[in-house]
Give the backbone structure.
Amino acid sequence: MGWAKRCGGGAGGKGVSKGRLIMVVFPSRCSAGLFQLFVCGDSCCIGPGLSIRPDQKTQERAVSMKAARLGVVAFAVGVLGGAALLAGGCANEQEKRGRDLYVHYCSDCHGESGKQNEGFNWSFMPDPKPKDLSNKSEMGTFKDEELFNTISRDMLDTSEEGGDEIGDDDFAVPTMPTFKYTLSEEEIWAIVGHVRTLHGTKMEFNVAARKASLEEGLKAAQAKFEQAKQAYEAAEKKANEEAERKSEQLKKDVEVDESAYAAELAAMVQAKKELDAAQVALNNFSTRPGKGVSIPRPDLTVKSAEAAKLVERGKRLYENKYGCNGCHNLAGEGGKIGPALDRAGFRLNATWIYRWLKNPQAMDSATRMPALGLKDEDAKAVTMYVSTLRAPKTEPVAQKPVEKP
């Protein structure tokens, strides 16, 4: 149409070329009026061949299109906002989980804020005392994986004679228990995340990527096992067919040559071990390892000649490997989280002690005592030692009555 000039129409006041008609349709009366004002000023003259008017249907379509656009925008904002809320919610849930686990299992010794001598049990523990988790200059030198490995490790016997070989990088403090056999991997990472907040940093380890890696590892192990199984079955079938062929030729039974598929059998067995390990690793990521595991009744029969040595070994393990004295008191020495064990030999049945040592959570899901991964022989030795703890019952000290003046 070109630029209209003050009632001059579309071409210098001459209007639109003959035979042509231009209609401008607006979705609202207001828009039509504004455009007409722009073209013609305050005059009502529009010019030949030019029509400007509002249209109700166009207005309805415009409203629908606008609503649709707003709906799309709102949906996009909703999706992005929902994703952000979901991610934030997951993060907040993981942070809360880590804090709750820390308070339940760690704060009695480390304190709620991680400071030394803050936890009620700190001063009763034998040396070395728990670290100051709020010390950023020291704690910041440890990688997330190192903190995880400290919390989730196998206990080492620190005895000078008969103990385990301890490397420079091994964490060997008996009174710091392991939670490898008590908590899921995900829960331990949650504790690591909370410990990071105690000295003002954040955990960098990607827990979600770790889970995805375990899932991919399981898929790969399953595929490897299926491939090895098929190879074994094919080799075994071929060996059987060869034995049958020879039997027909020789007119007598011929044994199958097992060596013909021995390599495939060994490969399948190894692949099955890897598959089982991958399945356990993924299960332990989200599920507590001792959950639903019952301990069978043990055979605690001991020859009299071996009893003394077993008790002596149990005492060594009690103090130098599993750090029981960090939580339990004997003769006024040791921690006070758990009950004093001076008279445990009177109070507790040996079978009960053994099963408790192997899996405390199976007997009391709310207990703070972790499962320390005791092997059967260690559990038996510690059980024998605890069974000997039979201190005489202490009589309450009689207090003299206060004389009235």
